[in-house]
Amino acid sequence: MSVPDASMKHAAPLEAFLQSFAGTTWDMAEVFSQLREDAPVVYVPILDMWVVSRYEDVVVALRDVERFVQPVGVMGEVPAEFAADLPGGYALSHTALTNANPPDHTRIRKLAQKPLTPRAVLRYEDMIRGVANDLVDRFADAGRADLVQQYAFPLSVTVMANVLGIPSDRHEDFRRWVLGTFELMVPTLTPQRRAELARDQVEFSAFVRDTIAERRAAPGDDLISGLVQAREGGEPGLSESECLGVVAQLITGGFETTQGTIGLALNTLCEDRALLDRVLDDPGLLPSLVDETVRRFCPARGVFRDTTCDVTLHGQVIPQGARLFVLIGAANQDPAQFDCPFAFDVDRDPGVMRRHVGFGQGIHKCIGIALAQLDIRIALEVLLSRLPGLRLVDGEDRPLAMGFVFSTPQRLVCAWDHHTTAGA
User: Fold this and answer.
1) Looking at the DSSP assignment, which residues form a beta bridge with residue 51?
2) Residues 234-248 pLDDT 10s
3) H or E stretch at 310
């Protein structure tokens, strides 16, 4: 495949973009702006990818599932010694939502979304609130905590485990499986570490398969029960493989972005006292706060797509078989779509806000939006109501996730006044 080199004109924005992978660039606004203006569709040799940053092009890449497809094999090959225990590959590779196209995708999504509608996920509200309060109880009296590692991260893991119906004595295993799934996407893993993680994936897949069988025999009120019971007309329900794929894709699609959005929203509130006071006075602003956090500080820089044929975007021909890094974060700050895009504005018109692509677009739009929004809203509501005078601790490092995709806080040390309130 013949591709052009990045020109000198593109050198500055691309260098800034690549440096952001180090986990030190909190605000990508300027980097994204340079890319949109100087290199909206550009090949980056060191990544062997095309980077796409303008809203109109990003939406095309997200919506056109014929020419732009979800890459396969993002977790690498299954080591030979585990192949027999992972028929069909890692759970994330099983055909389900993100890696299926119509007509299979239409049927799977229609069934999988039944237990994930806004009305359906409301049954988890008390559970989420209970998890949040239990976590705050552990550090409230200390007057200071790392609200990523001690709150946002464990809350996201515990809520997801509870939603799936995983018993509490397996939550630590679940946490290990979740983190291992993300680690398998790192291309520089040693063979030994890859084998260790593959062994964990065998354990994860076996556990989910066993749980699917148990729920078919005796359904409960959890998400896996909802998946195995979902029916639509005379169509068949989800197969074991499809259920496994849906569960794995929900975990990877929702975990990092949920805990990351909690951290990004907290950082924004602590840096803007006037906004924090408004939210404290009117918790009804929290849904808008969550949406604006996703738009302005998108927890995922972008997603990957592969081309199935030669494609022209913004006058640039991208060859068949190329990989794209589609910058949803850059699209969300495109001035062609959002007035004053760099301003954090919870009063944006809802119709305008719905244009943001932080949860995807088209048939592959995130199926767990309602659950993620509920989780984040309650997490913020509990924290703000129980920790008066919440503020960042000066001098503490605030690293972000390192790597391509995620731009999420990994540490956020905050302090508050000691007269905390008890959990509800």
Assistant:
1) 42, 325
2) 778 999 999 999 999
3) none
Residue with tokens 């659950």: 371
- The three-class DSSP label of residue 260 is helix
Query: What residues does each domain of the chain span?
Result: 74-300+350-415
- Which stretch of DSSP H or E encloses residue 374? helix 369-386
Question: What is the C-alpha to C-alpha distance for residues 272 and 235, in angstroms, rounded to an integer?
Answer: 51
Query: Can you tell me the distance from the alpha carbon of 270 to that of 275, in angstroms, rounded to the nearest whole number?
Result: 9
Give the angle subtended at the CA of 393 by the CAs of 415 and 146, to the nearest 5°: 65
Buried-state track 320-336, b at ≥16 Cβ within 10 A, e below 16: eebebbbbbbbbbbbee
Looking at domain 74-300+350-415, does it have CATH number 1.10.630.10? yes
Q: Is 23 left (phi over 0), alpha (psi -120 to 50) or beta?
A: left
SS3 state at 329: helix
- Tokens 């199935």 — which residue? 308
Strand arrangement, sheet containing 391-392: 144-146, 413-415, 391-392
User: How far is it, in rounded angstroms, from Cα 166 to Cα 162?
Assistant: 6
Tell me how far apart the alpha carbons of residues 382 and 277 are, in angstroms, rounded to a whole number.
Answer: 15
User: Number of C-alpha atoms within 13 angstroms, CB side, residue 163?
Assistant: 27
Whether the model clears a pTM of 0.85, i.e. scores above it, the answer is yes
pLDDT digits (tens, 9 = 90+) for 304-319: 999 999 999 988 999 9
With CA atoms as reference, report the closest residue to 136 among 378, 373, 374, 387. Answer: 387
Is omega for the bond preceding 103 within 30 degrees of 0, making it cis?
Answer: yes
